[in-house]
Amino acid sequence: MAKKIRIGSAECFRTEWDGTVPTIASVCVEANRFTHIKNGATLEYNQNKIIAKDDLEKVSKTAIQSEEAKIKFGVMTFDSSTMKYLIATAREATTTEANKTLTKIGGIQNDDETSYLWCLHHIDKKDGDIWIMFVGKQNGGVTIEYKQDSATVINAELDCEPMDDDGTKIYYFEETESTQGE
């Protein structure tokens, strides 16, 4: 298989996580669309290694000690219900203000500790689609940018969690040439 040049962003889907990895076809449906992405999406994977070597550096051994994976993307289409998926302490609240929805954010006792199954779908009609599926939740902060000259975007960063008995953090699916255009 020839290596390809990938151009473009991705679509973002979200569903409940029940401990079983579903099929792409069951996740990447309009009913599960989480947002349209602005400013792209980024996958970051890092390993922390321990290197053991003697004082004269004649022998050494390297082993992975830990790993982390993060997915970052700009949430361009959102409403108040979006917040609970990006901020663990966000929750709907009752308001007496007419025509308004209230979402309260904060208070560590309000952390719902819920993880979701996410799928980013990069569409490429020429070279084949890519799907990145992961289980995760927002473990850092979010930034909401209101700018005069562009769309308002929530910058999200999700930490990937183990999603199977092997400790896999990311399922990376790549469409093969034989399935393109079907």
The residue fraction in helices comes out at under 10%
Secondary-structure-based class equals: mainly beta
Number of helical segments? 2
Tell the overall outline: globular
Strand content: over 45%
* Cα-to-Cα separation, first versus last residue: 18 Å
Low-confidence stretches: none
Radius of gyration: 20 Å
Number of strands: 10
What is the count of distinct domains?
1
Largest β sheet strand count, sense and barrel closure:
6 strands, antiparallel, barrel
In sequence order, what are the helices and strands, one letter per element?
EHEEHEEEEEEE
Mean pLDDT: 91
Order of strands across the biggest sheet?
1-2-3-9-7-6
Descriptive overview:
It is built from two helices and ten strands, in the order βαββαβββββββ. It has 182 residues and is mostly beta strands. It has one domain. The strands form two sheets. The chain has a six-stranded antiparallel β-barrel. The protein has a two-stranded antiparallel ribbon with strand order 4-5. β8 and β9 form a beta hairpin.
